[in-house]
Amino acid sequence: MLPTDVKWAGGVAVYPGCNMRYRVDQHSKLPAPILMVLGEKDDMTPAKPCMELADEYAAAGHPVSYKVYPGATHVFDRLNQPWKKYNEGNFNLCSMDVCMPYVSNDRSSWGPAHDKVSGKTFTDDKEWNAHMPKCKQTSWITVESNDKAREEAVKDVLTFMKAAK
């Protein structure tokens, strides 16, 4: 058990996948700030859905911010990563918000789910299951170290964590 005076100071999400968002309660407040570290040219976990999500949270009063690093691809912070293409599966053809139940085995109370790309809203398993294959794709993603972006990200994260104390 943690002492009562211990609190979460903040979190850093490094090139997170934000196109599939599962939310338990969209109205609960985040207990600490979050910084999203995003690559401008990340084609595995694109920056745009994360920027939209962070802007939504910030507009609702949540302490969420992001930084997009110019020219940075996926895993830009990896040391000595040469330019390479990988064929990877992802769900980047959708941008989905899904309201989840409080109890994990309570499948009857999920939803609604809304896909920002197609504009469709799903309220039952049949609709959801029919739509999800349309979200999947296999695409070539690019990875490469970006020294400038990595150095800037390290400075930004350290500044964020010092401020989050």
What is the secondary structure topology, with strand pairs?
Elements: E1 11-14, E2 20-23, E3 34-39, H1 47-59, E4 64-69, E5 84-90, E6 96-99, E7 113-115, E8 121-122, H2 125-131, E9 137-143, H3 147-164
Parallel strand pairs: 1-3, 2-6, 3-4
Antiparallel strand pairs: 5-9, 6-7, 7-8
Explained architecture:
This protein has helices spanning 47-59, 125-131, 147-164, and strands at 11-14, 20-23, 34-39, 64-69, 84-90, 96-99, 113-115, 121-122, 137-143. With 165 residues, the chain is α/β, with parallel strands linked by helices. It has a four-stranded mixed beta sheet. Helix content is 23%, strand content 26%.
Short description:
This protein is of the alpha/beta class and 165 residues long. The chain is built from three helices and nine strands.
* Portion in beta strands: 25-35%
Q: Tell me the major beta sheet.
A: 4 strands, mixed
Order of helices and strands: EEEHEEEEEHEH
| Radius of gyration computed on alpha carbons | 18 Å
Number of strands: 9
Provide the structure class. Answer: alpha/beta
Low-pLDDT residue spans = none
Our count of helices gives 3
Overall geometry comes to flat
Helix amount, in percent? 10-25%
Arrangement of strands in the largest sheet: 2-6-7-8
Mean pLDDT: 88
Distance between the termini: 21 Å
Task: State the main characteristics.
3 helices; 26% strand; 23% helix; flat; 4-stranded mixed sheet; 3-stranded parallel sheet; 165 residues; alpha/beta
